[in-house]
Design goal:
Chains A, B: GO terms for molecular function: methyltransferase activity. 2 copies of one chain form a homodimer. In chain A, 36% of the residues lie in helices and 20% in strands. The first copy, chain A, is an alpha/beta fold and 236 residues long. Chain A is elongated.
């Protein structure tokens, strides 16, 4: 028997028309599937309904993959693939496997020789890099910075050095209610000619993307409180 | 007078139906524009025609941005924005500004306070990361590796160390006719338990994405000759 495949299905980055940010192929694939690995069942059902309103919701099988999931449950989630069924891995927001718990399932799929097919969708990391005007030939996403004041300061310094020594743009994120504090920390820690890109509410109506030097940010800031934001720095 | 905006417009990654990999918003935006910054006029006209067949081709204004473009020409390319016109920056393949010459235009747009709006489309870097099953919480794209044998070897070693010390997946590319040689070099340089993801012909019918250890690649390789490929390594 042929194995099923694992589709990686992106989601929107917030309250926006899904067809503005997802290609029609995403609908075609969701229409064809009845088994999904999801972060949260309720949110997933709502999303699937918005894409495929005609699909029967009671006939869906959903496995929840989130911080409460035990590692020993993962093989059960992809067992349907071994039995010939093609399934979907669906994010709550953005792209599965990137800044998201899905990577463990994908890793397991490779170990079991299951074909993994990623679908195109919005990634705040990629969209911010595109719109930053910084070096897109070499860039890194570093996740969250440390919370401890001294560790954070030395990590910001390290990323600034990396951006200069390797000409590599360095991006990272913060818990949204601490975004203003992070921008302040960046302005107080980086050299005044270091570039900072602030990319906020990406793909939403309130989208705000701006690259300027530390000196310019000090004169001309923005309120990022509770708005999903990606930060990128680069020192020439 | 209000300034125009700069849309960043992705393209397909090769010979595929554009609507399989681009959201409908890309068509809406292309339909609404008549001025584009492009890598190659002929390829751009063909792409625009495939998306907006009803658009008048003679009325398009195209500026060519590629390795032949002089830096002093760039301000002319975004002058229409300063005069109130919204324009598009269009890649030959994938996403503008990422592994692509468009970043210089975006940088200039920020300096001139022109609003930059990135649109969703296929990026081989992001799609490969999603499908690799490696750490997507922290990853870097490093562009091309050095050609010199010794420099290349030491760069591969450096990236392996980085992937381990910072738990950061490390991706890179090669000129497609040298892909097989690079996979060979990786297998001969990395430790036998280091993971390599080979992501080839992404979004095309011939797509091939596989993550396995160096030891497994040595036993079970693949022909990558002249196929666009992204490599990612990670040592646990």
């Amino acid at each position: 028997m042929d194995k099923g495949k694992l589709y990686l299905i992106p989601n929107t980055l917030g309250d926006t028309n899904p067809f503005d940010v997802l290609p029609s192929q995403v609908k075609t694939i969701i229409d064809s599937l009845d088994t999904f690995i999801v972060e949260n069942s309720k949110a997933a059902r709502k999303f699937i309904k918005s894409i495929s309103p005609e699909k029967s919701q009671p006939s869906l099988t959903l496995f929840e993959l989130n911080k409460h999931t035990q590692p020993e449950d993962l093989p059960n989630f992809i067992k349907p693939c071994l039995e010939g069924k093609t399934i979907g891995l669906l994010s709550d927001a953005g792209c599965p496997g990137v800044a998201d718990p899905g990577a463990d399932i994908v890793k397991l799929a490779h170990q079991k020789n299951i074909k993994v097919i990623p679908l195109v969708g919005p990634s705040s990391i990629l969209l911010a890099m595109m719109a930053s005007g910084m070096n897109g030939q070499s860039f890194a996403f570093n996740g969250y910075l440390p919370i401890d004041k001294h560790e954070r300061k030395s990590e910001i310094k390290r990323l600034e050095r990396l951006s200069k020594d390797y000409n590599q743009s360095q991006s990272f994120i913060e818990t949204p209610y601490r975004n203003n504090k992070l921008l302040e920390d960046l302005c107080n820690t980086l050299s005044s000619d270091c570039l900072i890109c602030v990319a906020c509410d990406i793909t939403l109506d309130s989208e705000y993307i701006k690259t300027q030097t530390v000196l310019q940010w000090k004169k001309n800031s923005v309120d990022l409180h509770k708005r999903p934001t990606l930060f990128i720095i680069h020192k020439a």
